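Hi all, long-time lurker, first post. I run a small reading group and we've been trying to get comfortable going from sequence to structure in the token notation. Rather than ask abstract questions, I figured I'd post a concrete chain and ask someone more experienced to write out its structure so we can walk through it together at our next meeting. Sequence below, copied exactly:
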Amino acid sequence: MHLRDLTQYLNELSENNNRPWFLWNKPRYDILRTEFVETVTELIREMAKFDKAIAACDPKKAVFRFQRDTRFAKDKTPYKTHFAAGIAPNNKRKPSDGAGPTYYFHIERNGKLLFGAGEYIPPAARLKAIRQHVVNDAPGFAKMLKNKHLRATYGDLRHDEGKLQRPPKGFDPEHPLVDYLKLKSFFVWIEVDLAVNEPDKLVPQLASGFKDAFALVTWLRGVPENIDES
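-- Answer (accepted) --
Happy to help. Here is the structure in token form:
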């Protein structure tokens, strides 16, 4: 896709974030969104080579809405200033919809590319299940954390995306993995400069990055829905 055109459009939108400007420039948006969907389509095809579970993912459903939900927000600007997509086997993208582990990326107006995978702030019941699985499958969880591809690209799980001050209720405060039990998200991500002059590198870069996160995605898919806490 035309990455320079996309970042230019997003920059202009950030300075004119209103409905009249958006409607006046809608032909530009329509072209860019079509290109973005095509990019996601190609990306899913590449990712299916290592993760067959997402092969049937609908690229149109993977792309997030461009309109912001302003019902309870102080910021009433109507449009986002990034293009984003979430790829999961069930065509769901949000934790509240039961998406489970998801591959996510977005392109920002400032020329940054953010991508990662895992579960970002899952619902309470799901989070409890993940924490219990850490306890029940401590060796498997520790092995996943040491995966050389995961660590080389992302390092550790993100500890800055919400963390309890104390261990969650019902979990052993002396557990060797207690720092992970405090997490509110089980997610990895990095932010890099977008190669706007080399658009052909975008899909291979994302596919490679997501493949490096596959160990985390696989472990999270193994979290039982009904866990025996005994």
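A couple of things your group might point at:
The first helix runs from residue 3 to 15.
The two ends are 52 Å apart (CA to CA).
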